[in-house]
Amino acid sequence: MGRVWNEIDSKLKEFIESSPVFFVATAPLSKNGHINCSPKGNRGELVVLSQRSVAYLDQTGSGIETVSHLNENGRITLMFCAFVGPPRIVRIHGIGTVIKRDEPSFAEMINHFKDPAAIGARSIVVIESEQVSDSCGYGVPLMDFVSHRDQMNDWASRKGEDGIREYWVEKNQTSIDGLPGL
């Protein structure tokens, strides 16, 4: 039933980039640490860079788990589910790196995305794929996509650049396990 690929072909790229939501899973090295799984909206915030790499805009949030885990060990899995059409689940297993907003390469990398303004983006996560796999998705429900929420961009716009940076200092310095964040 499941298949494994070494690369992201054009059909996988289309499925991945058109998914309105995807999930990011990471974990710390400590067996007592908290595993993290985060849903991410995709309004052009995820791009396939090559047959072996993808990147997504890491929007400002109340936690910093993914960034902290990637800084510690790099392990990451992205999961995409078909909620319409034929059932399907695709996972990208790989090693992620974080490009923080103030790093010089952020300005270069941001041009790969649909909305280069990226109001609330605190970093870009780049994943080098080690393996791409799919499975049937028979257990995933059919759901109608209505729209993306505007609250994230509205919130970031109200905060402004200085307010976002203050929020990072207040909420994004360490993970729930005390690992360094921003």
Characterization of the model:
The protein has one domain (3-137, 148-171): Pnp Oxidase, Chain A. The mean pLDDT is 95. The protein has 182 residues and is of the alpha+beta class. The longest helix is centred in the C-terminal third of the chain and has 21 residues, at 151-171. It has helices spanning 10-18, 65-72, 104-109, 151-171, and strands spanning 3-5, 21-26, 36-41, 46-50, 53-59, 75-81, 89-100, 121-135. It is built from four helices and eight strands.
Write the H/E string, N to C. EHEEEEHEEHEH
CATH superfamily: Electron Transport, Fmn-binding Protein, Chain A
CATH-scheme architecture: Roll
Mean pLDDT: 95
First and last CA, distance: 41 Å
Helix and strand composition category: alpha+beta
Beta-strand content estimate: 25-35%
Helix content range of the residues, please?
10-25%
Number of separate helices = 4
Major beta-sheet overview: 8 strands, antiparallel
Secondary structure blueprint with pairings:
Elements: E1 3-5, H1 10-18, E2 21-26, E3 36-41, E4 46-50, E5 53-59, H2 65-72, E6 75-81, E7 89-100, H3 104-109, E8 121-135, H4 151-171
Antiparallel strand pairs: 1-8, 2-3, 2-6, 4-5, 5-8, 6-7, 7-8
Briefly say what this structure is.
This protein is of the alpha+beta class and 182 residues long. It has helices at residues 10-18, 65-72, 104-109, 151-171, and strands at residues 3-5, 21-26, 36-41, 46-50, 53-59, 75-81, 89-100, 121-135. Strand 6 (75-81) and strand 7 (89-100) form a beta hairpin.
